[in-house]
Amino acid sequence: MLRSYKYFATIIITILLTQPSYADTLKEMGKNTLLFPVKTIAVATGLTIGIPIAMIRYSCDKSSEFTQSCADKIGGKECVPSILFGAVPGVTGGILAGCGEGLFYGTKNAIEHGVNKPFSQSSFSIDTDLE
Q: What is the model's pTM?
């Protein structure tokens, strides 16, 4: 039991000692050291919440795009039967493509924006102007 505490304490001390080495000033060093746990929790929360949100957003966008493309190839975007028949492959392909893109961009947003701006809308993939 005591051994696990020593191991845990060693990891914490190592993290705290290496974190300030990137700082320019003493004030920035203290700020980076104190914000390290906050940024870590922000990235973890962004991964947990932001990835499913990004997957849903990209799936909806891709489903609409693929359905319109399929309907245009069948008989035109204005024809209701073409849209109905184009929805089957369009929604299926949109969900598959959207889940892949959402997984990538949700992870990217959580890490990139979670470190720079913890707990922002961008880190949760709910900002309006994301990729």
A: 0.73
